[in-house]
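Interim report to the steering committee. The following record documents the input for INP5K phosphatase (212 residues).
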Amino acid sequence: QLNMAKKKEAFLKEFKEGPLQFKPTYKFDLYSEVYDTSEKKRKPAWTDRILWKVKNHCEVASKEGEFPEEEHLISVTQNSYSSHMSYGISDHKPVTGTFRLEMKPLYSDPLVVLHAEGEWNADHDVFIRYSAAPEFPSSAWDWIGLFQVNFRHVNDYITYAWVEDDEISSDRDSKQVYMSAPNVPEMGGEFLLCYYSNNLQSIVGISEPFQV
């Protein structure tokens, strides 16, 4: 029924689905892996499905000749697609999928370039120098965070400095910010700096790894 609908309905045609390599997920007797034994004896069906579609901005632009069609900013690959028969609180079995998302940067050059200056340790205040691209929309709420090299989320920072409140010098090409010594980790290790943009709600610059 779904495949028939995908052929007829325009909005469904571009949706993708992984191979159905699991048993039908409907209809089961509650708390069991037995298909419907009621008087209706409904036929098993693959009722629960996961479809996906990626809307690339460059796909729209390519129609106007701005970008080649093969260039995509985002690509999605499904790594797994399976049902979970151990759950029995419904006459359906849940279905899950895992995906790998790959994104190409919209900018060929980073909006902010930053690096740690001098020797970093907890005995003294430390310094950061950064420069921003002319078109970068900076904000008073931007901040620079100190992260371990294996961080996974923007909230994993060890400490941070506000780019305006903690600024100590600036010139036409760059600005300097400090972090106070008590906030520098004493255990040492390999770290990096990330510039977080409040306007863009994302990290827009990452330093090379360095030792503390």
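The first strand starts at residue 74 and ends at 83. The committee is asked to note this result when reviewing the revised timeline.
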